[in-house]
Amino acid sequence: MSKGYRIQASTGIHKGDRDYQQDQVCLLHHPRHSGCLLAVVADGMGGRSGGRKASDQVMLTARQLFERYDPDSDDSAALLRQIVEESHLVIKLTAVSAEQEPHSTIAAFLVNPAGDSHWVHAGDSRIYHFRHGKMVFRTMDHSYVQTLVNQGEISEEEALDHPHSNILMGCLGTDNDPPVDIHVVSQLVTGDAIVACSDGVWHYFTPEELSSTVAMLSPREACEFLIQKARSRSKGMGDNLSLVIVKLDPLG
Asked: Is the pTM of this model over 0.85?
């Protein structure tokens, strides 16, 4: 299988102005299939250890299921759905034995050797698809303010400062089944970039700022720059930050 691009990727994480880190991020390269990778961002909630336990479970579940995945024969959407549902179940079981109420978001995307990409998300961690510096698509948050935006009651800008911006309509570990929103990019091409990040990152940037930063810098440089800029813009009130950037560059 000949691909017309070279994959560059990086992750970034910072605890922001919080006392502890509840975000988790991972970028997994398939042990047997070149050009197959899985990126996962999880924003844990529910007390100091509760939130971290929840996001840790997402990472552990994703790693275990991805190692068994075969891009030649397995269903990509089924893998992502299984990661969400099994993480949700394990987090709920953890809650039974813990005093906290551990919850977590998830934003995960899979890139297959054939060049197709499959996404899943639950909560307000986001995935963006940029092509040549322009946003092609982004996930819609499972949040109260996103519902208001969708209904035309408030603008995207007003949503950022809304007093209820932290209320989620769906995530992992709650009593209700989590949303499982799947998105498919049928063919990635040179000039594409995919970014998954927690709200501690995207809250401080317009899509145009994200796309231009990712277009101009390497994934590692972009991760460092976006974290630094988000830290500056949060003015000492910043949340945990986590992101993963995957870029498709020309060969040679």
From this structure: yes
Q: Which residue has the tokens 């910043």?
A: 238
Question: What are the residues whose beta carbons fall under 8 Å from the beta carbon of 209, sequence distance 6 or more?
Answer: none
Q: Which residue has the tokens 């197959």?
A: 36
Q: How far apart are CA 116 and CA 36, in angstroms?
A: 10
**Beta strands 117-122 and 126-131: pairing type?**
unpaired
pLDDT tens digits for 21-63? 999 999 999 999 999 999 999 999 987 678 999 999 999 999 9
In the chain the first and final C-alpha atoms are separated, in Å, by 17
> Is the pLDDT assigned to residue 96 strictly greater than 90?
no
Say which residue the tokens 């047997």 belong to: 32
| Alpha-carbon span 61 to 90, nearest angstrom | 9
